[in-house]
Design a protein that fits this description.
It is a single chain. The chain is α/β, with parallel strands linked by helices and 259 residues long. It has a single domain, classed as Metallo-beta-lactamase, Chain A (4-Layer Sandwich), CATH 3.60.15. It has 7 helices and 14 strands. It has a 7-stranded mixed β-sheet with strand order 6-5-4-3-2-1-14, with no helix packed on it. It has a 7-stranded mixed β-sheet with strand order 7-8-9-10-11-12-13, covered by helices on one side. Helix 6 links the parallel strand 11 and strand 12. The chain is globular.
Length: 259
């Protein structure tokens, strides 16, 4: 068992808190006080290199075979968010694990061998109670690349984390999620393929007003781009009171509910 899988399994999370780990790219793992483990957009393989020719620039901190999960969430169907090599392994090794994703993820879920009873379709502007986490969704603007993509606020027993997935900055679409007062914002900053860049993400942090922002979706592929140093600078300008955490792949932190 690798270091990260051991760390996730052994982590003790205090009440009214959740612990998160960045998996690289747009992927995260979360663990609740009750011990439930949730993965969001885990990209753990080299499928993008194999299928699309984009070279992976950082190794996955955890192997698909090591993943123990109660829920896997997919914001949209692109390979670096809906891993066709890793998800079948996770589904097979975790027979009680549920999978929730945008409408375009349902076909691939079936191809991965995930039975209909284990799938939940995430549609925009709805809420889903999936046991240990409530998911509030909004439409994401990933253009024609993924028309059913969703952004989401994950409520872990009062700890609210706004995860953008892949999207341009669309404040009018995200206002219902802002109104839920997220503690943490996790925005993409890669700035290519229709996504927010570092300035857009800093402006979103100023709008959402979280206590902490954790940027993601940078340095995975040369074609994606993304500049965390420029994001830090932009946050000092647009939202100087918001704390910024730049994580390395496999690094974790504990987030607490507002007092």
């Amino acid at each position: 068992m690798g270091r990260l899988s051991q760390e996730i399994e052994s982590a003790t999370v205090p009440p009214q808190a959740v612990r998160l780990w960045w998996l690289g790219g747009a992927g995260f793992a979360f663990k609740t006080h009750a011990g439930r483990i949730v993965y969001v957009d885990p990209y753990l393989s080299d499928a993008v290199t194999r299928l699309h020719g984009f070279k992976r620039m950082c190794l996955s901190p955890i192997a698909a075979e090591e993943v123990k999960a109660d829920l896997v969430i997919s914001s949209h169907e692109h390979t670096d968010h809906l891993d066709p090599d890793a998800l079948p392994v996770i589904a097979r090794n975790n027979p009680q694990c549920r999978f929730a994703g945008s409408a375009s993820c349902m076909g691939p879920y079936g191809e991965f061998g995930i039975e209909p009873r284990r799938r939940t379709v995430l549609r925009p502007n709805r809420s889903y109670d999936l046991g240990g986490v409530t998911i509030h969704t909004a439409r994401a603007d990933h253009g024609d690349y993924a028309p059913t993509a969703v952004a989401m606020l994950l409520d872990f027993d009062g700890v609210r984390i706004l995860y953008t997935g892949d999207t341009a900055l669309r404040p009018e679409w995200f206002k219902p999620l802002y109104a839920l007062k997220p503690e943490v914002l996790i925005p993409c900053i890669n700035g290519n393929f229709g996504n927010m860049n570092h300035v857009d993400a800093a402006r979103m942090a100023a709008q959402a007003r979280p206590r902490l922002v954790v940027p993601c979706h940078f340095w995975m592929f040369p074609e994606h781009g993304g500049d965390p140093a420029a994001f830090l600078h932009a946050c000092r300008h647009f939202c100087p009171r918001v704390k910024v955490a730049i994580l390395s792949p496999g690094e974790g932190l504990t987030c607490r509910a507002r007092r």
